[in-house]
Amino acid sequence: MTSKGFTRNFRPLEILTEDEVEAIHRDTLNVLEKTGIRVEHKGALKLFKQNGCKVDYNEMRVRIPSGLVEECLRKAPSSYYFKARDPERDVQIGGNTFYFEPFPGMRTVDLYTWKPRPATEKERDDACVILDALDSVQCISPYTPYFEVEGVSPVMAIPEGVAAMLRNSTKPQISTGHSRDSEIFTIEMAKAVGTEIGMNFNMAPPLTAHADIVEAMFRAIQAGFPVWLTGGVAMGATGPATLAGATIVNNAQNMSGVVLSQLIKPGTRVMSSHSLSFAQDMRSGALAFGGVEGMLHVAAFNQIWRKYEIPRNAGIPGISSSKTMDFQSGYEKAMGALVAALSGSSIIMLHGGVYGELSWHPIQAILDDDIAGMVCRFIEGVEVNDETLAVDLINSVGPIPGMYLDKKHTRDWWKKEQFLPKVADRLSYPDWIKKGKKSAQDYAKVRMADILATHKPKPLNASQEEEIERILGEARQYYQKKGMM
Hints:
By secondary structure, this protein is of the alpha/beta class. The chain is built from 17 helices and 19 strands. Strand 18, helix 10 and strand 19 (about 345-350) form a beta-alpha-beta unit. The protein is about 45% helix and about 10% strand.
């Protein structure tokens, strides 16, 4: 059994003409063949060389023939299953179905001062429980939501985070980071509990693959796990200021990852992502998280990668330039999520991110759950059949004083047609006054307390828990021997 996800029931949004899609494709191949990419990994350089690429070992530069790129794009699967700890939560990625995933954050944030701070271990574990409970979150980032946790050594942040998510959620652990060989231990933990973890392949813009990310890719693919190709550019800084030019750089980075993955093992499952592509505001030097430029990039990116029939990840909706949970945060995240869904993302990162990757909070994730619900209802479209057209009903009710409140059709259909938010205020004004003038944040705090009091994720069994502890112990010893702890 698989989690059904959310299905777009109409044609995807297209903002480029066929000629424009072809121009971006052609020029991306030109960049890969003429300029190439820098790959700081000897084994990968050797593999590229063996498969007909021009390799400059001194500069660590790889120039990839267009034919090889297109051949590898064809080898990557267009859809595939991804295992969860609970088989009923397995997902099938690809096609018109999409899933929501939380966006990561470095720290939690104080809801009164909005000052970020490291989370406690209990706050990290509670956040995992919240994400396990939210219906619209169907995939998890296993090393998140927090990068910084009190009492946890930085080198253990990813292994400890993966362990916490495995203990507190049975949902698919869709993508994890890598740092200082942490993937050795996260892969072991996933295997110990019978699940999978997708490995992030984060290219450094422009056009560079550092040794650690390449080694992580080799390890993940050798373990039989998929890889998430994450390029990303800062438009005007690490990529051209133009949307078309930035798309070419991002696509070249991700295509090089497709090529490498298929050279390591043909048929390797991949996801192409643009989750770190934002415009840089030249007035302040800050990235424009939540900017409309990023949304345009999402739509163009999805249209192009639909042509390649490779699943797509959207990270733009997950964060805002706002430092608080305010009006700006709401419209930036909602617009980004809707554009991503309309244009054909397979995974949409949304829940919990507050500002950039700096701050994350479960209250924001609960608020985002309503955004996700509205997006999913929109994407289902309008059902048109004899029952929904309701012509006989309309004719029988007629004009005033006719009404529909007492009709069986209304009782049967209103909850099917409407999305009912869980924390939005939909009271009449007098009722809002009577009930204390509560805001969406107030309702979200109540919902968070209710979830933590009642939701009990399926725990690991005794042998799985023992194995997780053993692997964490190995990781601590590994980093102690290297002098990192």
